[in-house]
């Protein structure tokens, strides 16, 4: 016993002193649900594809031409033992959106269909929150709008959500013979 006090009183005094010098517990902030996608560009237009719809990003696979194919069919590429059709997305959409700065290839898969899509640039992984979602769609031709599932605005830039599954399920996209 300290100073002839009851042990319980000593413990109360220690608790009081400890609370006076203790730091508060960290505040628990509410975690926001984020939407994740792969950002890419066609010309000056920003698109984002849902993360689960892009399997891989390639720099430039070796492409072999395919005779008798439509203009937008760049060819086929062997990607780790799998032959994939390489398709020029801008060409398919019949868009002349300017020159390619850093062409990249997005590998998409849906069901039994796999394809490599040539795009102008890949801007990387993008994260958006509900407050970034916008009702306004970018000013795009009807053929492109057919694959747009909404948009996000972040940092003053608009990102059109490009639905790769819609693209792959389009009968016109599946018809590659000239």
Give a brief outline of the structure.
19% of the residues lie in helices and 42% in strands.
Annotate the secondary structure layout.
Layout: H1 7-21, E1 34-42, E2 45-50, E3 54-58, E4 63-64, E5 73-79, E6 82-88, H2 89-92, E7 104-110, E8 113-119, E9 121-129, E10 133-134, H3 142-145, E11 148-154, E12 157-162, H4 164-169, H5 171-174
Rounded average pLDDT: 87
Catalogue the unreliable spans.
none
Tell me how many strands there are: 12
DSSP helical segment count? 5
Sheet/helix structural class: alpha+beta
- What pattern of helices and strands is seen along the backbone? HEEEEEEHEEEEHEEHH
Q: Order of strands side by side in the largest beta sheet?
A: 9-1-2-12-11-10
Helix content: 10-25%
How many domains make up the coordinates? 1
**How many angstroms separate the termini?**
97 Å
| Overall geometric form | elongated
Main beta sheet: strand number and arrangement? 6 strands, mixed
Beta percentage is 35-45%
């Amino acid at each position: 016993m300290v100073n002839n006090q009851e042990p319980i009183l000593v413990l109360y005094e220690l608790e009081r002193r400890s609370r006076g010098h203790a730091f508060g517990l960290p505040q628990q902030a509410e975690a926001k649900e984020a939407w994740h996608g792969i950002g890419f560009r066609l010309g000056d237009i920003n698109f984002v594809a849902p993360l689960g719809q892009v399997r891989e990003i390639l720099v430039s696979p070796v492409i072999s031409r395919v005779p008798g194919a439509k203009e937008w069919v760049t060819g086929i590429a062997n990607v780790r033992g799998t032959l994939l059709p390489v398709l020029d997305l801008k060409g398919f959409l019949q868009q002349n959106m300017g020159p390619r700065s850093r062409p990249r290839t997005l590998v998409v898969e849906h069901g039994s269909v796999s394809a490599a899509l040539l795009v102008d640039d890949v801007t990387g992984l993008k994260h958006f929150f509900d407050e970034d979602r916008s009702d306004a769609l970018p000013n795009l031709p009807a053929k492109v709008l057919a694959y747009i599932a909404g948009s996000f605005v972040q940092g003053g830039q608009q990102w059109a959500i490009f639905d790769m599954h819609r693209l792959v399920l389009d009968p016109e996209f599946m018809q590659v013979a000239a």
